[in-house]
Specification:
Length: 475
């Protein structure tokens, strides 16, 4: 039996080790390539899903970077009934949320064409405000507010948009009242002083200093004048002369824009001529006839003051000129308290009569002040008024009304001096300083507020102005 020997021989150990070293790098590279190929497929899928989510939700990504100070909820107006968001025709806007400040707006809206997306590789400035794209439906008509007058123009550079006041925010409005004070200034000789400026005057209201806004020109402010002439038996002897002097006064003082009314003081007040120009008022005055009987002086002054307040335009100067001795024995309040007959009045003591007249005089004075009228009186009695207490008391009453309203009370020594007195009143009305200021007093309507006017730089001057006014009723 012949046995053949196998040609395969077991290699030696060094040769086997060398073969392994040669094949090991090749096997390792193939294994690593297969591992990378297998793991990259799920990672690409995740990245694609993430990018898709970012593209469909840019607002969520951007809003996440909104500062904490600006994370207030945005109130979006409700859609109309039956309307869906897809049906809204409003264009998108970029809403910039900024921390609310004391003077700046809380919400600023600017138009934009499309939402912007920031790439992860781009750097975002740290001070840039966060933005979010939201639809901005137009507000219904009742929610739209007109722009405030005098405000900034829309789109003006460098000016923030005006802040809209919500319905739940309280609005405080401060109103002011323009007060015009006619002021007459005379020197030690009684001559009228001209040339003073607004800075020369000092004015106080209820003891508080007020800023003089300006001094108006009396030639530019029309006059509403009420002329009251006594036709009772106590003045019959002088009536014709008084009538002529008063008619010349009307022609001299009244200009085309001025108006005059004529009242007669008799047993009852009588309006002889409603407000008219100088020619018509003069003809009516010359047609008046004297009468005999008692005198309702207080009632006539009250009626004339109310007529001026109701009939004259606002801001016109109101003036009452009275030609009378001021004695009253037939006004309604006098008849109600003292009596309507001479016997009843003569039995009343002088003290009681004076107290009653004081109360009635205060009421008359209030009506003249409420009308913002300046009161002038001319007593033609002359020296005879000193003959009895009633006449002196009546003159004192007229002088008091003139003082508190900024007017004057004249007692000419002679009847011939009446013309000079009228000329003095006319000159004063044409040279008054119309001192104006804005009062911010919150006093209720009807309250009396005292005022005082001074010229501190000229201690030698005499200032005559009304001593106060009643707060008017709101228009």
């Amino acid at each position: 039996m012949i046995i053949k020997q196998n040609r395969f021989t077991r290699p030696s150990t060094p040769a086997l080790f060398f073969s392994v070293l040669v094949l090991l790098p090749t096997l390792a590279t193939a294994s690593l390539s297969q591992t990378k190929s297998t793991s990259s497929r799920p990672k690409r899928a995740v990245a694609a899903a993430t990018d898709a989510k970012k593209k469909t939700s840019p607002a969520k990504k951007t809003a996440a970077r909104t500062p904490a100070a600006s994370s207030k909820p945005i109130a979006v107006p409700r859609l109309a009934a039956g309307q869906t968001p897809a049906q809204s025709t409003s264009r998108p806007v970029t809403v910039t949320l900024t921390p609310p400040t004391e003077s700046g707006p809380r919400l600023a809206q600017t138009p934009t064409q499309s939402p912007t997306q920031t790439s992860p590789s781009q750097s975002t400035p740290p001070a840039a405000p966060s933005t979010a794209t939201v639809p901005a439906p137009s507000p219904p008509p009742q929610q739209q507010r007109p722009p405030a007058s005098g405000g900034a123009q829309k789109g003006a550079p460098g000016k923030p948009p005006a802040e809209v006041i919500g319905d739940d925010e309280e609005v405080i409005r401060v109103t002011s009242n323009l007060v015009v004070v006619p002021v007459s200034v005379t020197d030690a000789k009684g001559e009228l002083v001209q040339g003073l400026k607004a800075t020369d005057f000092r004015l106080e209201e209820e003891g508080r200093a007020q800023q003089v806004a300006e001094v108006g020109d009396p030639e530019q402010v029309p006059i509403e004048l009420a002329l009251l002439i006594d036709v009772s038996g106590s003045v019959n002897a002088r009536f014709a002369f008084e009538q002529e002097a008063a008619s010349r006064f009307l022609k001299e003082v009244l200009k085309p824009a001025d108006k005059a009314s004529v009242y007669t003081i008799g047993i009852t007040p009588k309006l002889e001529q409603a407000r008219a120009n100088a020619d018509i008022a003069t003809r009516s005055l010359l047609a008046v006839q004297p009468a005999r009987g008692p005198t309702a002086f207080y009632d006539t002054v009250i009626e004339a003051a109310r007529y001026l307040a109701q009939s004259s335009p606002p801001r016109h100067r109101r003036v009452i000129v009275v030609i009378s001795d001021g004695e009253d024995n037939y006004s309604e309040k006098i008849k109600a308290t003292v009596g309507s007959t001479r016997e009843e009045q003569e039995t009343t003591s002088a003290k009681v009569r004076r107290q009653i007249n004081d109360r009635v005089l205060q009421e008359v004075q209030r009506e003249v002040q409420r009308a913002d009228a300046v009161f002038y009186s001319i007593n033609p009695s002359g020296q005879s008024l000193r003959l009895n207490d009633i006449s002196k008391y009546a003159q004192d009453g007229m002088a008091q009304m003139a003082e508190v309203t900024g007017g004057s009370a004249f007692v000419p020594e002679e009847l011939e001096d009446l013309g000079a007195v009228f000329r003095q009143i006319a000159a004063e009305l044409r040279s008054q300083y119309l001192v104006q200021y804005y009062s911010n007093s919150q006093a209720p309507p009807g309250k009396y507020l005292g005022i005082k006017v001074r010229v501190p730089t000229r201690a030698d001057l005499r200032i005559r102005a009304r001593q106060g006014y009643y707060v008017p009723q709101p228009k």
